[in-house]
């Protein structure tokens, strides 16, 4: 008996669409669910070296929640690469200005740092409100509101 491991071809992979409502959900738990869909680990033909993930649309980003005192204490850091280029912004300020960015940063932190990360993040669409331009993709879809 000659057993062979099945390797899915890129052309064979189908990309589904998932609509996730962030209203009332905890940020970290939401980000892990989104990251799983973007990576494609929920699929039977998952391969770590191939980008087999799906498209994800997150709505109501402005209604996501944090537990404990994180809303008051959490800070986001970045550096421009120049001397003295260290920047810091609090969760409250970033969330009031761009609630979509909070979810994008959380999901980005949950994805592995490899060549596929940029392409996976391109398939993530986050909206602060309920309105989004991808509504027609979910009509009669079983993946809506995962």
CATH superfamily: Ribosomal protein L13
CATH class: Alpha Beta
Q: Rg from C-alpha positions? A: 18 Å
**SSE class:** alpha/beta
What proportion strand?
Answer: 15-25%
Which runs of at least 5 residues are low in confidence (pLDDT < 50)? none
CATH topology: Ribosomal Protein L13p, Chain: A
The largest sheet has its strands arranged as 1-2-5
Number of helices: 5
Mean pLDDT: 91
Q: Level of helix content? A: 25-40%
Largest sheet: 3 strands, parallel
CATH architecture: Alpha-Beta Complex
Secondary-structure element series: EHEHEEHHHE
Topology record:
Elements: E1 17-21, H1 27-39, E2 55-59, H2 70-73, E3 75-79, E4 86-90, H3 91-97, H4 99-110, H5 117-122, E5 124-126
Parallel strand pairs: 1-2, 2-5
Antiparallel strand pairs: 3-4
Helix pairs in contact: 1-4, 3-4
Brief sketch in words of this structure:
Helix content is 29%, strand content 16%. With 146 residues, it is an alpha/beta fold.
Describe the structure.
- 29% of the residues lie in helices and 16% in strands.
- By secondary structure, it is an alpha/beta fold.
- The chain has a three-stranded parallel β-sheet with strand order 1-2-5.
- Helix 3 (91-97) packs across helix 4.
- The longest helix is centred in the N-terminal third of the chain and has 13 residues, at 27-39.
- It is globular.
- The chain starts with 16 loop residues before the first strand and ends in a 20-residue tail after the last strand.
């Amino acid at each position: 008996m000659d057993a062979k491991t099945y390797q899915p071809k890129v052309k064979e992979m189908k990309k589904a669409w998932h609509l996730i409502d962030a209203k009332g959900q905890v940020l970290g738990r939401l980000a892990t669910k989104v990251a799983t869909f973007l990576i494609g680990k929920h699929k039977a033909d998952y391969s770590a070296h191939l980008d087999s993930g799906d498209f994800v649309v997150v709505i109501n980003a402005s209604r996501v929640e944090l537990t404990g005192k994180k809303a008051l204490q959490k800070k986001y850091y970045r550096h421009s690469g120049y001397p003295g280029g260290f920047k810091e912004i609090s969760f409250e300020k970033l969330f009031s200005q761009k609630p979509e960015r909070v979810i994008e940063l959380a999901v980005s932190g949950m994805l592995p740092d490899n060549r596929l990360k940029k392409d996976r993040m391109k398939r993530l669409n986050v909206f602060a409100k309920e309105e989004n331009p991808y509504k027609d993709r979910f009509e009669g879809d079983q993946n809506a509101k995962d």
